[in-house]
Specification:
- This protein is α+β, with helices and mostly antiparallel strands.
- About 30% of the residues lie in helices and about 30% in strands.
- β3 and β4 form a beta hairpin.
- The C terminus is likely disordered.
Amino acid sequence: MVANVVNDGAVILKRQKARTRKFSDVRGIVVMFIEAKRLKHDMTPGERYGQLAGEALWTAQHNLEGVGSGDQEVFGVVKTHRNAHIFHGVFKESYLRNAPSALSPNDSATLKISRSFDLANTGERLEFVAQLLGVLHYVKSGNSFVGKMRGAGLPVRI
């Protein structure tokens, strides 16, 4: 069985060529996936979280292919009607390599989702944006494992 994962969007790294308006992908690294659901999407919370876990796994495996080795960290923005969440996952390299065939007890992944932010509420909307900017600054800092950016010295500007 082959799964076909389609995100509703993604934030990827681009590098601007010197003195031009041309951009190119940086190793095809997906910094953050985006998932949007309509108000009545007919999914149980378990099905929705299962879909998010699948999208996070696909993103981590995609980034691992681009860099070759290392544990992978994944972020996502989940929007449902007027609510939004931030999704975070950390996948061990062994988990990503063994997931297509057979996982061992030593393979692991950690998945977390933030509380729901009501985007119609000004205070919660500002808090969501602050949290989202915090994630982007964390990725920019070089301390994350998004596409093995840690210590890679990639020129990222936010």
